[in-house]
Amino acid sequence: MNETMKIIFGLVGGLAIFIYGMNMMSECLQKAAGEKMKKILALLTKNPILGVLAGALTTAVLQSSSATTVMTIGFVSAGLMSLPQAISIILGANIGTTMTAQIIAFKITDYIYLFIFAGFLISFISKKEKVKNIGQTIFAFGLLFLGIETMGDVMKPLASSAFFVNMIGKVSHIPILGVCVGAVMTLVVQSSSATIAVLQNFAAQAGPDGVTSIIGLAGAIPILLGDNIGTTITAVLASIGQPKDARRTAFAHCVFNISGAILFLFLVKPYAALIQFISPKGNEIDVISRQIANAHTGFNLVMTLIWIPLIPLMVKIVMKLVPDGKEMGTKALENPKYLDNKLIAQPAAALQLVAKEVMYCAKLVDEMIGKLQYRNGKIDKENAELVEEKAKILQKLYASVNDCFASLYSGGVLTEEQASQSAGMQYILCDIDRIGQLTREIMETVAKQNKGKHKYSKDALKELKKAMEQIQMIYGSCIQAISGDVNMDIKELMRQKEDIMQLGEKMRKNHIARVGKGKCDSKLTIPFNDVLHNIDRIGNSCVNLVEVAKENVTMQAFFAED
């Protein structure tokens, strides 16, 4: 194999190890953090300063500003976050992403295999999930540096290539060309952390004089700026087909990085001198990796400090870029209102949106039950059509939520605790869907009676109305219980369900008595019993919901804590 092929294979192989290690570390960190991710997410709804902090912390855990941005777009799309709040998260994400470059700047070459072995040993021996995740995080950390070391080793011959040195010289002296190179690199790799790691390793190679860096800090900074621009593409792609505020959030990310690149492009040399002054001193090839990391951090800190007080201006800019008007790709009513499959890799955020979707399904069913009301001895045709329409929507949402659960389980991203809570949420969703379909059956049965010549007596209609009102009352109380209302009396709900069971038995006896006296048509006995049977089944499903609530499996478990 010739030297060129060795360099290419070594570079792409090292990059693959680096990205794999970084993704693995992200996944294991999330699992190790577990429920603490909810506390970080809770900061998202606070003031801009806390929003910046939340964005930085979340990105430090996810090891990717793109992942944080995509998650933020998901929250905005679901209506759980306002545009100004989302922009503050984006600002923080840009600071958090510099953590990777700072870690890379540490010289731990001699300890790479120690990290890999220690991480493997901990994850292999431990039986506890949290400890195992910590071990895998350490293992992934070692892999990350192994990838960097591999890339560094294969880059050394490039420093002696006259062609390559001449090409790098052009990039170093034409800043705009450096910006383009950085943007293209990140577009291809889809990770600014990875391209900055490559830049740090390459810059640490000695030039022809054997002392100074082959590119120098002033030559590296424009490429760094281009890396920041390239990472915005992921956010733009994630916003396609989303509501306008989600697209505005993606454009805010673009505005932040492009405005910063333009500003710093005119200040490359003085900024490089400042970074060299505040960074550790020593031979350039020994300290340039840290200088690049500090330049990356400094750029994002300065731009964040500039934009925090100007968030209202940022809002105006992105509203101009994405004006009000006809929505592109607005979700149809039967499509999920909150779900976002792009967040499967971030289970804490994904489960929060799933819980919102389940509660939305619960609200749909409550509206369906509310339409089971008689007027002048009949069910309105309009109400019957609404129940039918909502039942079809419910079925589609039920399928979508279950598909989301399947993706979370198959992705292996859930902790044991999250998997257990998710199973409880599936039980809740199943009973909510069952109640919805039973409500639909009741409406269909009663609607047939409207069209026939056989009519219920006033007493029968009065009893049916009372039963439906009680069902709506107990169902509403159940939904309050599973939503985490600590004031709900579970024992009282169980008693109400018993009342419904007794009412159903009493209604059957009364109907038979009315038929015997000629007050009700005997041909209505079967549909009447069908309605009562479905009311009983709704009551049973309500009991299931109450029992789930008694086991402290509530939607509140998935929401970010205040």
UniProtKB/TrEMBL annotation:
Key words, A-Z: Cell membrane, Membrane, Transmembrane, Transmembrane helix
Membrane-spanning parts: 6-22, 43-62, 68-92, 104-125, 137-155, 176-199, 211-238, 250-278, 298-319
InterPro entries referenced in this protein's UniProt entry, alphabetically: Na/Pi_transpt, NaPi_cotrn-rel/YqeW-like, PhoU-like_sf
Any one GO MF annotation of this record: sodium:phosphate symporter activity
Keyword Signal listed: no
GO CC entries: plasma membrane
GO BP terms: sodium-dependent phosphate transport
Pfam family, one: Na_Pi_cotrans
UniProt-annotated location(s): Cell membrane
Domain of life: Bacteria
Membrane topology classification: Multi-pass membrane protein
Principal subcellular localization: membrane
Keyword Cell cycle among record annotations: no
Protein name listed in UniProt: Na/Pi-cotransporter II-related protein
Biological classification of the source: Bacteria, Bacillati, Bacillota, Clostridia, Lachnospirales
